[in-house]
């Protein structure tokens, strides 16, 4: 994802935490469920994260049953 390259500090104030970069396998990312859009997570960009912070995955599972999520991640040394 080329837009993740470079300085992303402007996202800090919005509470975004980029934590990775897709270097291969973009076809997997393209298959993630897209229909919730910004409503999943309680409207993160609108500052409505209360339910997510209070109830966590239980709230997400109940309100957004088709939402994809990471179950595990592996840190790979950059070459």
Q: Topology, please?
A:
Blueprint: H1 26-30, H2 50-55, H3 57-63
Number of helices in the DSSP assignment: 3
Number of beta strands = 0
- Secondary-structure element string: HHH
The mean pLDDT is 76
Shape: globular
Helical content, roughly? 10-25%
User: Could you give a short account of the major beta sheet?
Assistant: none
In angstroms, what is the radius of gyration? Answer: 14 Å
Q: Would you tell me the structural class of the helices and strands? A: mainly alpha
The end-to-end distance, rounded to whole angstroms, is: 17 Å
- Low-confidence stretches are none
Oligomer classification: single chain
Descriptive account of the structure:
The chain has a domain at 36-79. 23% of the residues lie in helices and 0% in strands. The chain contains 3 helices and no strands. It has helices at residues 26-30, 50-55, 57-63. It is globular, with a radius of gyration of 14 Å. The two termini are 17 Å apart.
Give the tags.
single chain; 0% strand; 79 residues; mainly alpha; globular
What's the gist of this structure?
The chain is an all-alpha fold and 79 residues long.
